[in-house]
Amino acid sequence: MRLKKKIICILMSVLMLLPLAACSDNSVTVAKYKDTSIDSSMFSYMLSSQKAYLEQMLYYYYKTTDFDSVWASEFSKDESGNTITFGDNAFNGIVDALKMFVVVKQLCKEYGLNVTDESTVNAIEGYISEDIATAGDINFLEIALAEYGAKIGDEKDYLYTTSLTSVLLDYLYGDNGTMKIPDSDIRAEFDKNYTKVDMNMFSYSTKNDSGTYVSRVDSDIPESELKDYFNRQYVKAEHILFYFYDTSDKSGKTKISEADMQSKREAAAVLFEKIKNGEITFDDAKKENNEDTGMFTDADGDVIEKGKLNEKFADFEKMLFDLEIGGIAMIETDVGVHIVRRNAMADKDFDDAKDDISKAVTKERIANEAKDFFEKVKNGSAKLNDETKYGSYQEAVVYSAGEMGEEVEKLIAELKDGESLIYNDDSCTVIIRRLATTDDDYKKEYSTIKSALSQEAFYAYLESLYPQVELNEEEIAKYTFAAVKSLSIKSYNS
Q1: Minimal CA–CA distance to 390: which of 417, 371, 403, 409?
Q2: CB atoms within 10 A of CB 269
Q3: Which fold has domain 223-351?
Q4: Could you tell me how far CA 42 lies from the centroid of its own chain?
Q5: Domains of the chain: which residue ranges?
Q6: Does the model's pTM come out above 0.90?
Q7: Per residue in 321-344, pLDDT tens?
Q8: Phi and psi dihedrals of 326, rounded to 5?
């Protein structure tokens, strides 16, 4: 039975290949540069293979398989304000690749260039052989590719042209290239965009036994130090809120009218005076008037850490920390008018926050040591590579613009050679010293810079020729990225 099925499949493949041969003659030119052209079947292969690659990347990085939604979502706007979807952007990129391919093929023809590297040739043939094996045989691969409007020759041509691009790059910009980047340009790029620093890093994290980075926590922190930090950095409060938003709007984005807000301001002021005068207790007033929708949830008040509230509540937070225990105050924020009381902490509040406090105290210790060490480095009583409890000296490195982050690079750029700065973020405090670059540094970076400048110039040169490429706009307009099938070679060998 299995043999019979195999014979039927072979017969079907022969029958199907007959119309495919005719189809190959029906391919039309979609791009032409001088006397080199690329036809629609090659363009179909480019679209399908690139769509498959992009979908693999989407799944790898974002774990999504809802590709249709991604392609239909907005990427940007054009100059007229029209929406460009991610699918549109991908399609436009493949059209640019089409232009590049036809230009590369023509230039290689003019210069007599071919892919001669044996390992590259073997790799290309290996890819084709793998697809033939997946499909079952060469005839089945032809059938498989026909589903995408492509032919075996298109796959091979695509891989060879991709490799030809590297051959052309080396021919034009390699060591013996006719358009190679002069050493003076490479040196200028190094002097402009490369900087040398060494540093001492005071990290707030450390690796645990499983190799995962976790917050650093000192084991020798006395209880008194933890409680001192707790009393400085934490406050407990509850409030009575006169809410400025329409509670019937579940989105919570609709404010009540200005007249209604004014009425609430006046009502809050009256109640505040009554509480101050002892006409009503804060607790009774809270039971009768509070419109809180969840900002403060605990019955006896919420514990708040300094700096953890949203920035729009900065004045609110400052007021809380300025209040004495038992004191009340009134303040207006974006959400409404608050009548606030600061409450005494309970032992449980400290116990609940103890782990976080231990991390914070350790972080404070690390930051303080870094600040003290920085002052010693500046006044010459310590060297940057001296050993400290928390610091870790990092040997000199040369980095290019963009590798260290825009903010810190701007600060380093203001330093003279030999000068230092201190910088901190959520992960560490670091002392950075700018150093003079040397000829040895330049030699180490030479190949990297040359390669980057060569590629930049190469692709700019190719793009300068794109206006000379004749596109069959009518044929290209028949394709949409959403309608293109993602390339997947299936097996007919069963």
Answers
A1: 371
A2: 14
A3: Chitinase A; domain 3 (3.10.50)
A4: 33
A5: 29-181+449-477, 192-216+360-437, 223-351
A6: no
A7: 999 999 999 999 999 999 999 999
A8: 90, -15
